[in-house]
Amino acid sequence: MKNWIGIDCGGTVLKAGVYDQTGQEIGVSRRALTVLTREPGWAERDMPLLWQACCAVIQDVLAKTAIDPASVGGVAISAQGKGLFLLDKQQQPLGYGILSSDQRALKQVREWMKEGIPQKLYPETRQTLWTGHPATLLRWVKDNEPERYAQIGAVQMGHDFLRTCLTGEVACEETNISESNLYNMEAGEYDAALLALLGIPEIMPALPKIVGSSEASGRVTEKAATETGLLAGTPVYGGLFDVVSTALCAGLQDEETLNAVMGTWSVTSGVTNHIDHQQSDPFVYGRYAEAGKYIVHAASPTSAGNLEWFIKQWGITDYASINQEIASLPKAESNLFFVPFLYGSNAGSGMTAGFYGLQALHERRHMLQAIYEGVVFSHMTHLNFLRKRFPNATRMRLTGGPARSAEWMQIFADVSGFELELPQIEETGCLGAALAAMVGGGAYPDFAAALDAFQPKQIVVKPDPSVYEKYQTKLAKYQQLVNKLAEFQSISESIV
Fold first, then answer.
1. What is the pLDDT of residue 496?
2. Is 356 in the same domain as 423?
3. Which terminal residue of the chain, N or C, has fewer Cβ atoms less than 10 Å from its own Cβ?
């Protein structure tokens, strides 16, 4: 029986997992990744070091699992969306990779908003316009680093770069590049008119061919084989946007089920087979891994990263103790609020995080409870928005690190009113990528067949109806607080 390797390139950790044909995890290796902040608001990655980390996790997982590299049927990569990883005309890294959380192009986005550019783009791209899009970052590079811009040979995202390192082939994977604002969603291809509207028409020759998630995109080169421990000639497949990877692992196939992801980002997503032209709200669409389907999602970097920052300040290393502290408090009765905007917001550009209502009577446990609640409240912004597009959704599945916390999941269920289904999958990014390799390698005819064969166990968390109204009241107060903070942000920006 063949084995399959899925690589997950996240915001702070790179992972490689080995899976058998039933989706059973054989082993996983992890390496921390460094985010470079050379300037305020910048978030970058050293591309050669990223490749070295990728080589290390592949070597490590092969050693840890002791599998024969000859048994590896294929490799695929799941990664963060958006951002910009440039190659020069010799296919070498061109400067640092720019991550989706980068804010350097905020001024450009604000100028475009004043000019009504987002409204002109949306009917073609089905994307909102923000700082982390490849299109936005390309315009920033053109205006601020013209010499670098002139050297661009290929435009890619993170997993595209790693795939090029593995195979020597330059391409962009469809689920990710479809959300770049360089791509016409219904036509399924790059659009020169979009580039002209954004003021970057000359970049068209640097846009690589587009490959599907399970499409063969090359084979491991001799050089990459030496560096990773894989066999030269091992097939490499397109891969996935990590939001798509988690949706696949959650089993999303129709409009009746939504998936929430809690990690670095808060994400809510659903799957459909059509673009609804009757909807007036700007829902973000992307190509799904399955042919003829789209993923619709809403997201912001307002999730568990806020907790990670807090516990780092306090020196907390035991997550069980956090849950115990929160469990010791009554539900929805604290008057303390936390706005989880440390790494970005979903309520307006430039907004920042903070506690409100903090008094001398509050202890650390109250602050931790406020963080748990604040992340869920922020997530409700996305969930309530997506429910307009998926009014018939009756099931909610949730994945991500916080799914391990019974206390956090209970808060999510209590606030949302949904009965939560928690698929027991340790690494959705790695497994989703491995599924792409399995489908590409012929182990399954399509993703639907793979998901039918692989049925992970689920934990069900039921909401507590006795606190639903209390949480709705506190959620409304949270939203009022965020609205007032948005007003303050607008006023403060107008003061010179």
1. 55
2. yes
3. C
Which CATH number characterizes residue 476's domain? 3.30.420.40
Q: At what angle do helices 242-249 and 428-440 cross, to 10 degrees?
A: 90
Last residue of a domain, one of 201, 219, 238: 238
Report the C-alpha gap between 413 and 415 in whole angstroms: 6
Two tokens at 252?
Answer: 């999303």
How far, in Å, are 15, 246, 252, 404, 457 from residue 426 at the CA level?
A: 12, 11, 18, 10, 11
Q: Identify which of 90, 81, 205, 212 has the alpha carbon closest to the alpha carbon of residue 155.
A: 205
Tens digit of each residue's pLDDT (9 = 90 or more) over 388-443: 999 999 999 999 889 999 999 999 999 999 999 999 888 999 999 999 999 999 99
How far apart are alpha carbons 255 and 279 in whole angstroms? 15
The span from the CA of 177 to the CA of 158, in Å, is 11
Q: Which two tokens stand for residue 127?
A: 């994307």
Same domain assignment for residues 249 and 333: yes
Q: How confident is the model at residue 457 (pLDDT cuts 50, 70, 90)?
A: confident
Number of residues assigned to the chain? 496
DSSP strand pairing (294-300 vs 266-272): antiparallel
Answer yes or no: do 327 and 410 share one domain. yes
**pLDDT tens across 88-101, in order?**
999 999 999 999 88
Q: Is 17 left (phi over 0), alpha (psi -120 to 50) or beta?
A: beta
What's the pLDDT tens digit per position in 246-280? 999 998 888 999 999 998 789 999 999 999 998 88
CB-neighbour burial class of residue 29 (10 A; exposed 0-12, middle 13-18, buried 19+): buried
Burial grade of 333 (CB within 10 A; 0-12, 13-18, 19 or more): exposed
Clarify whether residues 285 and 410 are in a common domain.
yes
